[in-house]
Amino acid sequence: MTPPEIMKPSESLCYYLAMSFLGPLRRFGSRTPVITRFESNENYFGQRVAETSQYRKLFSPFVSFEGKTVLDLGCNRGYLLHSFLQHENFEAIGADIHYLEEARRDYGDHIKFVQSTPTSIPLPDGSVDVVYTIDTVEHLSKPKEIFRDVFRVLRPAGVFLVHFNPWLNPHGHHLEDIITFPWPHAVFSMNTLLNVAEKLYDSPVYPASCYFMDAEGNKKPNPYKDRSMWKDYLNFMTIRRFNQLLRELHFEVRHQERIGFGGSTFKLSRMVRSLAKAPVLTELFTSVLFTVLVKPEIEAINPK
Question: Which residues partner with 130 through β-bridges?
Fold first, then answer.
């Protein structure tokens, strides 16, 4: 477990902790025997699709997709939209910057996919009834601008469902497949975490995640060396910052829910689930922030 040479003390400590959670403390980290989503794309997509029932349970008290035009902002390869279509009949549109070739290949016969930009969605004004975004807000480089464009494409009284993992939750750093102990970004800088991840990735003991393997089963070039990519990948969106953003927009906040940890994977986490409701600790113990936004009627924005 000896760390590589020429590491700062903070990096050495982080390295020791990361190695411990890949080894003797494995059961308490992200790579437990229960979690196999990092081992293959099939497992990764399968787990996401299996969570569709949870999303439907969250969404259903506020809106039905049935018979509506529904946009998935940050649709990735379209598997969630396809899963939703197994339960309700609606006009489905997926928007993303990447992955559209794969999305159209797999689901293009029944889902329309459009190429978005960091600030815009290529759809007409008032053309969509419902927009949802799942685990995407923390990756938006221009969140205010794209939320304004969501407002534009929604019809009056249209609903925007926002589901994301705030920055300060235990795995908000999005390095949980390699830095597996909780809250490392609350102790170490992101630069330290990436330096350690870079060293771990090149270590023979690191079981690389499926998305870092090529078709022949070999590790791809070290993805943690490109700091500019990681700077664009995360916007460090906290609950507080998100709510500040909403105050600058014209949406009506219909509902907001701070969801703590739970489920069958991290059994110990259920013991601290209620801390998501605690004012001082909510940023640290909120696993998911779920917000329902509504576009007011036109008259409410521009009264006569």
Answer: 70, 159
Alpha-carbon distances, residue 201 vs 6, 23, 61, 210, 265 (angstroms): 17, 15, 43, 13, 25
- Give tens-digit pLDDT for 142-164: 999 999 999 999 999 999 999 99
Dist. CA 67–CA 129, nearest whole Å: 10
3-class secondary-structure state, position 73: strand
Contact present, 169 and 287 (Cβ < 8 Å):
yes
Residue 74 and residue 96 in contact, taking contact as beta carbons nearer than 8 Å: yes
Q: Are 66 and 88 in contact (CB under 8 A)?
A: yes
Q: What is the mean pLDDT of the chain?
A: 87
Residue 113 φ/ψ region, left for φ over 0, alpha for ψ in the -120 to 50 degree band, beta for the rest:
beta
Q: What is the pTM of this model?
A: 0.88
DSSP 297: P
**65-70 long-range contacts, Cβ below 8 Å, gap at least 24?**
65/90, 65/130, 66/90, 68/129, 68/130, 69/93, 69/127, 69/128, 69/129, 69/130, 70/128, 70/129, 70/130, 70/131, 70/132
Residue 162 phi/psi, 5° resolution? -120, 120
- Spell out a b/e string for 5-27, using b for 16 or more CB atoms within 10 Å of the CB, else e: eebeebbebbbebbbbbbeeeee
Beta bridge partners of 258: 289
Rounded to whole angstroms, the Cα distance separating 38 from 210 reads 6
pLDDT band at residue 272 using 50, 70 and 90 as cut-offs = low
Highest mean pLDDT among 16-30, 213-227, 274-288: 213-227
CA 77 distance to own-chain centroid: 14
- Report pLDDT digits (tens) over 4-14: 666 789 999 99
3-class DSSP state for residue 146? helix
User: Helix or strand or coil: residue 272?
Assistant: helix
